[in-house]
Each structure stands twice: as structure tokens, then as C-alpha cells.
Amino acid sequence: MCQIESLALTVSIQSQLLSKAWHDNEVHSLSSCASKNRTTVPKLDAAGEQARNQLIASLRHLEQLVLGPKDAMQSLYYRSAEAGVVQALCQLEVPQSVPLEGSISYTDLSTKVGVSEDRLKHLIRNAAVCSNYLRETENGEVAHSPNSSIWQLDPMMANGMEVMLNHLPSSSFKLGEVCTRDPNDEQEKVDGFSLARGAPLFEYLETNPDQGRRFAAHMRAQAAQSGDEAIQECYDWDSVKGKTLVDCGGSFGSVATAIVRKAPGVKCIVQDLPKVINSAIAVTAKNPNFPHDSVSFQAHSFLEPQPIVADLYLFRMVFHNWCDQGARRIIKALLPVLKPGARVIAIEYVMPPIGSAPIYAELATRRLDNVMYSLMKGKVRELEEFKDLFASVDTNLKFKSFRQGELKATHDPKCHSVLEWVYDPEPVVAGEPVVVAEPVAAMTKAEVPSLPVLDVAAVATTQHVDAENEPSTPVLSSPSESSTSSPGVVEVRDAQMAREDKKMADISVQEIRQSPDSPVHLS
Ligand SMILES: C[S@@+](CC[C@H](N)C(=O)[O-])C[C@H]1O[C@@H](n2cnc3c(N)ncnc32)[C@H](O)[C@@H]1O
């Protein structure tokens, strides 16, 4: 039997398994998605999930074989052009102008969106035939297909897709230029997005508020689909009960909320950039179900010296946004406050070494790696790369555990792996000179931060801000008011170093205060 035949046989068997799992879980047929207004496939049991994963990979392989190399490569660039057609239709707000039920004539649609009937016909027919996006009815009108109905049924999800359609193809088509300009990935700001749009992603979003709002909504939608369960089950959160956890880059606190619901008694401080924290406080203040007594917010950039001495520092879906240089700065900013036994946890997609995982899982993760690099110069790291990254900052951060996420063909939070490090400093032998960790290239000696400048109680006072009357102002206590003694930190520094650190801490907090965007007030 030739390869095409054996693959086709596999596809047939996997299709039967999937169909069975599909029907066992919910009474409907594969083709009834549209009539039932579904935008996602129904929940599957393990066997069904596995069949679906394998089917996605087999179909792709089969298509490549059937096309042969020349047509396969042609279809690659045709598909990228087809994405351009869908992007254009979105920009023209065509999917919002087509009713979810029924249809609309080209004449009416043309009037609504301000583009000629002829051009609309070409665009819509291309999208319908090539991307199953919209469709033409028998009487020649435009109606939704299952794919385009997302724009009516789930505007948040559609929003995220538009953000990607708007920026990902143009950014990824700059990769060659990125590599030419920065062959060793040393310049954080030379990335595909910056070359395509003239500014790094987050700067661009700041100056393009509409895109910024869409992006924020996309991030919230992503967080909302995360489901508490994946977070709650991925780590022994009970082991943090009665202790302090800082969720670095924790956005609106959805992860922290899931954690404290699973393990009441964990004290969470969610840190993020000032604008994010501002909004988070305003939004959560209105939510009576938000666990205000255990989750508080603090404006803090994780590139700056960490101000809180905590038991656990959590980074969920943060490191993949950063190249090694930036990721080292983030880890390094923790060092001044790490006490022996402090844990650093990353919850992340982890890249399987090439060829080691099922192809569908590797494909999904490599796609993500490309998205991260194109948009932000980030990367999805292999386990060994993560270990090397942390070790390159401080060998006292000892790698402790790894929990592999589920391997799937599509992304969801169950695919996140958990990596854990523990700060376990080598004992200082009496009489030996004290060795302070060598700053990594991104930081000069003068930048080596900092003493703890906040106490947890001060941060916790931020939680009951009345969003209506008070513009979300996390209150930081000033360095001078805070304890400057941190067990296990100050001891290993000489007095000169400590003075320099203190100066840097003062400056960095001052910078936050002086920033025109900052909602932070120092009392
Ligand atoms: C991919 S999101 C992950 C959000 C959250 N951890 C989660 O898992 O849902 C990355 C987060 O990092 C935040 N971020 C980016 N740069 C930051 C910085 N310099 N300091 C603190 N947070 C930052 C972003 O605002 C965003 O909330």
C-alpha cells in the first residue's frame, strides 16, 4: 500500500473515532455546527481528543502528498494572500453587516460598506471558496458560513482574530530583515512588528487606541477562555497557603483569582504595568465576587527591581513574549529580594525537542514560536533552554521541577507546562570574599538593583479603591518608609553595594511616580 493510501486509511479510522466521540458527548452531527450556532467543537473525551489531534496531522500530511512539492509551495503563498482577503472584509466590516440568520443582497451590502458590488463579489467569492468564510446563497445573496459567523456569535473571539490578521502576516514577512539587521537576537526592539509598523507592539498600541482596545479585549478573551481548572490543577497551590505569591505580569488577576479559589489563604499580589493595573482595579472594584481580601494589585514593571519579598513569584505566559536578553532582565530583577527557599514558577508553552512529540503538538507549538518572534521578538523555549536561561542569570536559582502540559493540535491552557526554580544560595564560607552575582550584559553594575521597598501590607491597602471616585491608584509606600532588611539578601552584599542598590530603588520608584502615565502615588 502506498503512503497516500495508508494515510487515507488512517484518516478514515480516525474520522470514525472522532465522529463516535462527538456523538457520544453531544447529539449532533459534524455538519450541524452552523445550524447550532457553534463556534468551537464540542468537548471530547480523551479518545475523541486524540483522534482529532491525529486527524488534523494526518489530513495535513495527506494534503501535502496529494499536492506534491510544487503545488504545496504555491498553496503556501496563496493562503497568505487569502488571509489578506479575509482581513479586508473585516476591515470593511462586512461580517458585521451580514445578518446571522438569512442573507443580504450585494446591492444592500455595497451600500452599507461603501464598496462596489463588483469588488465585493470578487472578495466574498474568494473568501467563500478559499477560506470557507461567508457564502453565497442559491438566490445570489450573501450569508454567513460557520467560520464567518464567529463575527456575529463571539465578537471577542473575532476581535482577537482581527488583531492577528491585521498584524501577524505583515510582521512575519519582515523576519528576513530582522535576521539581517540583528543576526544574533541582541536587539530587543528589532522585531518584525516594529519593522512593519514603525514601533514595537505595545508602543504602537498606546498610540493607536482603537487597536489597543482590540488587543486588550483579545487578551481578556484569551484569559477568559483559560478556565480556572487548568490553572488550579497544574501546581500544588496548597503549598503556598499562608504565604505570599506575586503574579508578575498578572494582568487583571484572573490567574490569581483561580489560585486563591483553589487554595484559600494564599496572599496574591498582582503586578502589571500601570495602565493595566489601573483598569484592573477599576474593573474588579465593581465585581462583588472578586476575592478582594486575598488578591491585591500593584503597578510594577517586572524589568525594574522587584519590590516585594515573597515566597513565590509566578510568571504565567510572560517569558514567551521576551527574547533571552529581555527574559534575563526579568529574572535578574528578582534577585535582590529572593530569600532562600523562594520559588519562581513559569507557566508556559514549552517547545518539544524536534521530532520528540507528536507532529500535531510540535506544529502547534512551532507556530506559536513564530508568532512570538514576529510580534515581539519572543520565543517558545525548550525545557533545556529554560534551564540554561535561568542558570545564566544566577546558578543559585536551582531548577526543581517540570510538569509537562498536554500535547495537542490546538492551543489551550491545558497545554501549559509548569517549570519551577527554588532560590537555594550556596552557603558563604567564612573568610571567603562575598561573590555577588555577575550582572548580565543587559544591566550595568550601577543598574544592579535593589532593596525591598514595599511591604505586603502596604500593597494590600490598594484593594478597596472605589473605581468611580478614585482613578485606580495603587499606593506604594516609599523606600524610606519600608524595611530595608531582607533576610538572605542584604547579608550577601557589602555596604557600598547596598547603598548603590538603595539609590537605584529610589530612582526606579521615582521614575514610576514621574511617568505621566503612572497612576502610582507615593505616600
Ligand atoms: C501574555 S500576557 C499574560 C497575562 C497573565 N499572566 C495571564 O497568564 O493571563 C503578558 C502580561 O505581561 C504584562 N507586561 C508586559 N510588560 C510588562 C512589564 N514590563 N512589567 C509588568 N508586566 C508587563 C502585560 O501587560 C500582560 O498583562
UniProtKB/TrEMBL annotation:
SUPFAM superfamilies, per the entry: S-adenosyl-L-methionine-dependent methyltransferases
Domain O-methyltransferase C-terminal residues, every copy: 192-391
Keyword S-adenosyl-L-methionine among UniProt keywords: yes
Domain of life: Eukaryota
Keywords per UniProt: Methyltransferase, S-adenosyl-L-methionine, Transferase
Ranges annotated as biased composition (Basic and acidic residues): 491-505
GO molecular function terms noted in the UniProt entry: O-methyltransferase activity
GO BP annotations listed: methylation
Keyword Transferase attributed: yes
Compositional bias of kind Low complexity: 470-490
Region (Disordered): 465-523
Family: Belongs to the class I-like SAM-binding methyltransferase superfamily. Cation-independent O-methyltransferase family.
Family annotation (PANTHER family): O-METHYLTRANSFERASE ASQN-RELATED, PUTATIVE (AFU_ORTHOLOGUE AFUA_4G14580)-RELATED
Protein's name in the database: O-methyltransferase C-terminal domain-containing protein
Organism lineage string: Eukaryota, Fungi, Dikarya, Ascomycota, Pezizomycotina
